[in-house]
Amino acid sequence: MNQGSAVIFFANFLSDLAVDLEEGEVLAEWAQQAPRKAWLLRPGDVLVSPVPLGRKFLEYVTGLTGVPSESVTVIAVPPVGAVPLAQAVRQAGLTDRLRGLAGQPGAV
């Protein structure tokens, strides 16, 4: 369990170091792996994902890990093209929301 501020997991699969950011099909396939980061979540944590995380999958994961699903926050960043996740967060106007969650112990 986290005793301090929330841990924010960026499920970032877009990197110009790995592949040309113009390779949209490859990047879209990679992004589909993002929900797997849910296995790392503990109460109060935040998952920032480039794709939506299905409610049933989150319930499955948290059921097995013993983490109440209502104790974690999942933010699906709206698609903005082939850009790294941090840039997509800024473009979607989510920076202040994340900043607020990071400063709260057990953020939900």
- SSE pattern: EHEHEHH
Mean pLDDT comes to 80
Question: So how many helices?
Answer: 4
- Total beta-strand segments: 3
Rg: 14 Å
Judging from the principal axes of the Cα atoms, what is the shape? Answer: flat
Amount of helix: 25-40%
Largest sheet, order of strands side by side? 1-2-3
**Helix/strand structural class:** alpha/beta
Question: Unreliable runs, pLDDT <50, ≥5 residues?
Answer: none
Number of domains: 1
Sheet of most strands: 3 strands, parallel
Strand content: 5-15%
Q: What is the CA–CA distance across the termini?
A: 14 Å
Blueprint (SSEs and pairs):
Layout: E1 8-10, H1 24-31, E2 46-49, H2 55-65, E3 73-76, H3 85-91, H4 95-102
Parallel strand pairs: 1-2, 2-3
Give a structural overview.
The protein has 108 residues and is of the alpha/beta class. The protein has one domain (8-102). It has four helices and three strands, in the order βαβαβαα. The protein has helices at 24-31, 55-65, 85-91, 95-102; strands spanning 8-10, 46-49, 73-76. Strand 2, helix 2 (55-65) and strand 3 form a beta-alpha-beta unit. The longest helix is centred in the middle third of the chain and has 11 residues, at 55-65. It is flat.
Provide a compact summary of the structure.
The chain has 108 residues and is an alpha/beta fold. It has 4 helices and 3 strands. It has a 3-stranded parallel β-sheet, covered by helices on one side.
Key phrases:
108 residues, alpha/beta, 31% helix, flat
